[in-house]
Amino acid sequence: xxxxxxxxxxxxxxxxxxxxxxxxxxxxxxxxxxxxxxxxxxxxxxxxxxxxxxxxxxxxxxxxxxxxxxxxxxxxxxxxxxxxxxxxxxxxxxxxxxxxxxxxxxxxxxxxxxxxxxxxxxxxxxxxxxxxxxxxxxxxxxxxxxxxxxxxxxxxxxxxxxxxxxxxxxxxxxxxxxxxxxxxxxxxxxxxxxxxxxxxxxxxxxxxxxxxxxxxxxxxxxxxxxxxxxxxxxxxxxxxxxxxxxxxxxxxxxxxxxxxxxxxxxxxxxxxxxxxxxxxxxxxxxxxxxxxxxxxxx
Length: 298
What we know:
The chain is an alpha+beta fold. The chain has helices at residues 21-42, 50-57, 67-82, 92-97, 110-117, 149-163, 257-278; strands at residues 2-7, 10-17, 63-64, 125-128, 133-136, 168-173, 177-181, 191-197, 200-210, 213-219, 224-227, 230-233, 236-237, 242-243, 247-254, 284-289, 295-297. It is globular.
């Protein structure tokens, strides 16, 4: 059984195996209901979402948030610390100045980048665990859930499927963040996944089998534009204010999709040598760099 829905700016697809069609249908509906709930919580396109409420008001005063949102923001701050700032949800002003927020794409003036950078930095996100509040240290800070929302949603959908008695499923968010639950009946090794060549979508650079684990991929071919002879992708280095250069594609395999999605960004931004020295022990990384062979990073 397979079904898809457009939510949170992405297409979510669920493939299920089982012998009880009614149970499978109910589980499928519950999983899509969960991702729609998360859209109402995390969307920065919905003005009435809890995420948008923080963006609109946290520069004026501490904003009390739900335990779920606070815990997610706390996790985001932890990814930022561990990645030396290469992962950063306060990247919103940069995504807007580069035109990646709504796909308008533009090459900004240096002064615009400098102005946006003054509003970016995870240190400007002040989290009070006791009061369960969020505050921005300076005006103009804007959180962007794009680097973590899909992975968080996929994990939640998988948990809902498990709670509804599903043992074999593949949940995908836009094809870039997936979780493989169990293994299909015809393949005990797991779900067969192919990683495309970043330079040629008709070619495959790696194949693997996933079972009870996730895979997320970031590539410079996903969202990009070309200007003055250079290619600018949506993977932003929040510390410089410019799109990352040098890496073409990163795929991360982890136990949780929130981890695989979050880590693709700093690995992409910081490159292979930093990744080899700093990646968590429980993740696997496949990377394609400009002018270099695609490799598993050890």
